[in-house]
Request: fold
Amino acid sequence: MMSKRHLPSAGPLLVGALSVGLLLGLWELAGLKGGALASVLPPPSQFLRSIIQSNFRIGLGSQAATVTESLMATFLRVFVGMGIAFVAAILTGALLSLSRFATWALSPILQLLAPIAPIAWIPTAIVVFGINDVTAIFIVFMGVYFILTLATLAEIRRIPPEFGTVAGNLGATPAQRWLWVTLPAILPGVFVLLRTNFIAAWMAVLVAEMVGLRDGLGAIIMMGRNLFNNELVMFGMVVIGLTGFIVDRLLQFIGQRILWWRV
Amino acid sequence: MLMKTEPVDAFRVEQLTVDYGGESGPLQDFTLSIRQGEITCLLGRSGCGKTTLLKTLGGFVVGRDTGGVLFEGRYLNGPTPDIVMIFQENNLFPWLTVRGNIEFGLKFKPKDKRRAGVVDEMLQIVGLSEAAHRYPHELSGGMRQRTAIARALVSDPHVLLLDEPFSALDISLRRRMHALMMELWEKTSMTMVMVTHNIEEALQMGHRVVVLGDRPAKVLIDADTRSEAMKDRYSPEFLALQQKIESVIY
Reply:
């Protein structure tokens, strides 16, 4: 009985692990033969060995950073940027939903800025903020903020009218109604979009790290390229893929366990 | 022998006009009194204005200032916690448990006006003590409506407005809810106004049944249904009134 019940949940995991294993196996197999393919696409056993040999430090001399430092630099940028964008989007959405004048004034600006790819902000941001974390955070922010603002507005429109009536009926002021009803009603839906847009933010920060900033996961790949070190490039790509996957799962967990309700 | 006392009006709807900006609104120059301590049921075809009337009684809709709604002798110009409305659905906040939803009824009340233990008391009255920790999506339709009723009652309202509260429930559940509402009324003698599509429900629950005609709304039938015979859905009186209402509505 028990094993039967567990099968459906273990099934996809098993198949997924097998297919990833198969991919790694084929990669290794292709690398075994050596030659051109192995130098462009060095297999995991090869690039992992050389990373371990260099003590997980990447770079030259005193400027070398550990993998953990690069990872943390990228994480900081993505999470701070997404966090600020999340809060700002909800506040903007609230303002727009409460004031018709604000909607008239701000929505054309939002709609003009939304289609600009976050990457396009990189040159300007570097000039304005310099080569530092603020630039990266700004780019993540620009990549997520507009979508989340539009999502907030859509979620506010989706709230059943009864909710507001119930709260008003029980004596809530408009501000209390917003805090205790509108906010909890929209949080899960906006968070789902935050998760969907995490990939966009992740890519934006990696590109920023590649073209301008000197550290972070994106910089690992750029350094590999400049040093003709394909092992470093591969390693960087694997770390990016793996951490992106883990963060996505983390966001999914928050969405299902903390912001689980549906309105 | 019953003492005959002069009934007091909870609501006096006087020459009320609601037109939502359009030309012919659902209510024009409408007048009706609703007595205190009675269960009044409003029947009528869809779109006849009965829900609009209910909303004006709650202060959720305010008509043109040529008339208005007097509640306990004062003109009503907005919602008040003294008059609580219960809807057909979406009464409960999905992120709060049964207890959390009921406590929401006290959230905006001054602390000194809250009665200690009232939430537990209400949970017991509506039979949800065991389910207090559950979330709305884990409840049946009947349990959700009972939670909504409990939340309405913790704030000690004078009037309960019910907008087709049991329409989504199956017939056996609906009858159980009728029994619960009658029990609550026995305890509190609260004024209740209920909009329904269900003639049987109106006759069984109501002390008075008001049938409204189409735009603009007018009273077609105003019947006293508190007699013993009206509570028996096979009695000739019940069937006769049911037939009369059906012939007027359909």
Remarks:
- Residues 7-79+198-250 of chain B form a domain with the Rossmann fold fold (CATH 3.40.50.300).
- DSSP finds seven helices and ten strands in chain B.
- Strands of chain B lie at 9-18, 27-35, 39-44, 68-71, 74-75, 83-86, 159-163, 191-195, 208-213, 218-224.
